[in-house]
Amino acid sequence: MSKSLIQFIIEEQRHVQNASGDFTGLLSDVVSACKQIAHDVNKGALIGVLGSAGSENVQGETQKKLDIITNEVFIKANEWSGHLAAMASEEMEDIYPIPAKYPKGKYLITFDPLDGSSNIDVNISVGTIFSILRCPEGVTNPTAADFMQPGTKQVCAGYALYGPNTMMVITTGHGVNGFTLDRDVGDFFLTHPNMQIPADTNEFAINMSNQRYWEKPVQRYVEECVKGKDGGREKNFNMRWVASMVAEVHRILTRGGIFMYPFDTKDPAKAGKLRLMYEANPMSFIVEQAGGVSSTGRERIMDLQPQGLHQRVPVILGSKNEVERAVSYHKGA
Ligand code: FBP
After folding, report:
1. Helix or strand or coil: residue 36?
2. What is residue 233's predicted lDDT score, i.e. its pLDDT?
3. pLDDT at 160
4. How many CA atoms lie within 13 A of 266 on its CB side?
């Protein structure tokens, strides 16, 4: 039997100076949250959790019942054990300070409890995304301002993918490793060590229905992919769009590809669709650690100075050579 996720992390932490076990404890809580979410997602209609909750989240999106349930599960699994000082979620307007009845810890966590909401009721893969930061030294009652740390400050990032099988993929800055849930044993085991994104690909992913709103560089890049060899590219391309970022990124980690949710003029007030703190930053950390590139088209996402908990950014990530080509078009190449 290969190593369990927690054994893998404990052994990795042995190389970390002054490791206190706090981080391992926190990750263990995150893993148990994802196991519970995997159970609920897997049971679906059997436990009446499909469908809309009839309420809206801070993004103005209609919440699914599972958006609310998974948010609650994640909070309950992580608030009690003394590793966190506060949390921030896609489903909550402001941060969630650890209740006074529980001890506080030295970490902050941001999370998207259920990514790919539009796919929940149609049984297509969805996921949970998380990013762990350090709480600034001496801060015991953190505010949203204490979360405003660039992606380069992340201690750990990961996602759980609830698909044909349930997986967790994690980086702590020492490469990317994937673990599969053995439901009989009830634990995640190392199945995808040292995941690497091929530098080249002929697979692109973008929501084509937004084409008329894209900027020129993206119009040009996608048009060339669609035309392939008939349009001057050295190869033909295939297209994919799952509408679950977790599933797209996992496909890219597994076989390469480029994923784009660029800026578009559909709603110029929004810099993009995806959120920096709990979608773009954690996925960028994972992609870069697997040898890929992640950009807004103009800047490295992980260098961005966050301005708000629910800030949106353009995202172009994946296989190095294709992302760099798309970025070069933004720079006028
Ligand atoms: P949430 O489901 O967490 O709101 O995430 C946004 C998301 O569903 C991404 O997972 C996905 O890549 C994108 O939106 C799909 O957007 P669209 O519906 O425009 O294709």
Report:
1. helix
2. 97
3. 98
4. 14
Question: Which protein residue has the closest C-alpha to ligand 1 atom 13?
Answer: 243
DSSP string, 141-206: S--GGGG---GGG-SEEEEEEESSSEEEEEESSS-EEEEEEETTTTEEEEEE-S----S--SEEE-
Report how far residue 279's alpha carbon sits from residue 158's, in angstroms, rounded to the nearest whole number: 10
**For the chain (length 333 residues), average pLDDT per consecutive 10?**
93 87 96 98 95 82 92 98 98 97 97 96 98 97 98 98 98 97 97 98 98 97 98 96 98 98 92 96 98 98 98 98 98 90
Residue 62: predicted pLDDT = 84
Lateral strand order in the sheet of 187-192:
96-97, 84-89, 107-115, 126-134, 156-162, 166-171, 176-182, 187-192
CA of 308 to the centre of ligand 1 (A): 19
Distant-in-sequence, close-in-space partners of 81: CB < 8 Å, separation ≥ 6:
25, 26, 29, 102, 105
Cα 19 to ligand 1 centroid, rounded to whole Å: 36
